Amino acid sequence: MSAIDFSDPATIAFLAEALTAAGVDGLEISRPGGQLRIVVAEKGGARISSTDATPPAPGFAPGLTSAVVKAPMAGRLCLDHPASAVPQKLPRSVSDADIVGFVGIGHILLPLRAGRSGVLTRLLAEPGALVGFGDPLFEIELPS
User: Fold this and answer.
1) How far apart are CA 64 and CA 144, in angstroms?
2) CB of 67 within 8 A of CB of 142?
3) This protein's superkingdom (predicted)?
4) Ranges of each domain in the chain
5) CA atoms lying within 13 Å on the CB side of residue 97
6) Tens digit of each residue's pLDDT (9 = 90 or more) over 76-126
7) Top CATH class, 66-141
8) Cα-based angle 7, 8, 13 (whole degrees, multiple of 5)
9) How far is CA 138 from the centre of its chain?
10) pLDDT digits 0-9 by tens, 37-73
11) Spatial separation of the C-alpha atoms in residues 94 and 101, rounded to whole Å
């Protein structure tokens, strides 16, 4: 029997659909190479909403000069929306509601909101890389 490739977005999407069909609330798989966490958001299927802001990362606290945007779920890091004609450049100013990138599983894209206003200065993960729940993705310099 061959090992399951948990870095494959098609595998992750298949697991999410299987969990939904089975009525399971979620699944977490930890291995030496990483962690995969899938949560079924509500009855009737795994839902990803593009209207809710990504929760601020725990690094957001008064007195800090920078903050980190973390992955809210496992998937592939996308810097730009596939329909976008203009690629994003760094550094650039962002507001708390700005979308700074996406985490994708198959054809589903979860927007990553800055969560704080400031200057998006660094990319902490490679575009297209598989990221896990809580992985740091972007650094934002906060205004002083």
Assistant:
1) 9
2) yes
3) Bacteria
4) 66-141
5) 3
6) 999 988 777 777 889 999 999 899 999 988 778 888 999 899 999 999 999
7) mainly beta
8) 115
9) 11
10) 677 665 544 433 222 333 444 444 455 688 999 998 8
11) 12
